[in-house]
Amino acid sequence: MLDGIGSFDVRSVTPRRRVVIMGGAAEVDAASRAFVEGAVGGDVLVLRATGSTTSYNSYFASGVSASPAPSWVGTIRLDVATTGSHPALLCHVARAEAVWLTGGDQWNYLGQWPTTLHDSLRTTAARGAAIGGTSAGAMSISEVAYDARAASATSDQALANPFHASVTVMRSPFGQPELAGTLVDTHFMQRTREGRMLTFLARGRQLLQRDTIVGIGLDERAAMIIEGETFTVLTGAADRHTWVYRVSGAGIVQADTPLSLESVERVRLDHGATGPWPLDFSRHTPERLRVVQGRVEDG
Fold it and tell me: In a 3-state reduction of DSSP, which class is residue 73?
């Protein structure tokens, strides 16, 4: 199902490449504006599996006061996942200057949408379109994604057993290059998700066969913008933050065995924080943590 505002622009517009991720709940208007302005007056496409096909249209078209305003904002809801192969939908993705993924259930995006749509999203990103998402949408575009194919994992479940049925991670089929070696989680402190983040990172490190892996935990009403080699954090409330983790060193990551990790670094980024991306941990004063038999402790 498609709804839109404005006139679909067939001109050749060069977008401004940036990745915008949000932690859920109310959008951060300044970050939404940055996302829409990445379209440089072109077309903004919202993709979702459930929910309204009109709510984002007016918000992105005029509610964030983007300059220049987009020519067209449209929302496509894929009521049936296989419609992701429809030529008309793929045409919209291919021509969009900015693509936004809403919240919901990331398994719809990662596991249900067809390969043709995943391929089209990768191609659109590769030509420089702005890409963004909130909640499940944000979680879907990091290289490693918690896919929630079975159920939503709690921190207690994940720490007690890193291979619990609810702890399922995968390589995103349309992970963004700016988020290579990274996993994103959302609704972060509001839903006590640090423990499961560390478990996801431990599993993700095994998946990628890397010595280190980075996690981005976005509080509700918190956003991160990545453009080129620079990040900026914006929030809609003073008590909301973005948390960046780095896991390295030895660990015990086995089925039916509580998680242990020797070396975890955590950096809290407040509203207005900016700097080089990937995050240079040496420019900050990371808190040192470790996980001992399923318990997160100061390190």
Answer: strand
- Name the CA radius of gyration of the chain, rounded: 19
Give CA angle at 243 (239, 247), nearest 5°. Answer: 155
**pLDDT tens digits along 119-176:** 999 999 999 999 999 999 999 999 999 999 999 999 999 999 999 999 999 999 999 9
| pLDDT on residue 54 | 96
Domain count, the chain: 1
Quote the pTM value: 0.97
CATH number at residue 141: 3.40.50.880
* Cβ 125 vs Cβ 15: under 8 Å: no
Per the structure, the complete domain to which residue 224 belongs is given by: 2-298
Q: How far apart are CA 194 and CA 178, in angstroms?
A: 22
What pLDDT sits at residue 45? 98
Element counts in the chain: helices (H) and strands (E):
8, 17
What secondary structure letter does DSSP report for 282? G
The helix (run of H) or strand (run of E) holding residue 230 is: strand 230-235
Write out the E strands in 7-106: 19-22, 43-48, 72-77, 98-101
* Among 189, 299, 286, residue whose Cα is nearest residue 251: 299
Category of 66 on φ-ψ map: left (φ > 0), alpha (ψ -120 to 50) or beta: beta
